[in-house]
Write a structure and sequence with these properties.
Blueprint lengths: L1 H17 L8 H17 L13 H12 L14 E10 L2 E9 L5 E8 L6 E5 L6 E7 L2 E7 L5 H14 L3
Antiparallel strand pairs: 1-2, 2-3, 3-6, 4-5, 5-6
Amino acid sequence: MALLLGLGAASGAAGPWALREPARPSEIACLQIEAATAYRVFAADEAHPAGAGPDDRAALARWMTRTLGRPALVPDLSAEGYRLLGGRTLTAMYGPAAMLTYEDPRSGRITLYVQPMRLGRVAGIQRVAAGAVDSFAWIAGRTGYSVLAPPGESGDALHGIASQLRDEMRL
């Protein structure tokens, strides 16, 4: 009997904490998880880093616009030393996403990940931890953006590219 009372008291004492829901990640954290996963899977693929080639930026932008259901641009990062390898559409937790892959002369790759957001809470550019990927993300106009690079890329340079893209993406 004493054992039953002891177990009951212990379970009752832990009850309120045991029933608590785990904290939900922020919308920008969810965006970053999706973007980092896509980066690790596709940007590292030497043979097929993109589904659609870079030859026709206008067609690629139309394809992304149609898939995402909102206007999309294919930025030119040649001034920063990156050439477009191409883009691909992806599935995300709540619908479509797109990723553009760029490469520099040293074969370093960065990606721009774009995803419609359910809530669309505006968030300024912020460095977001994404495991083995350096990244900056922001949410504007119910669209989430993330710029990702391999670890060790200059954070200042990546932040500069993210800032330029944010300004260019204001459609």
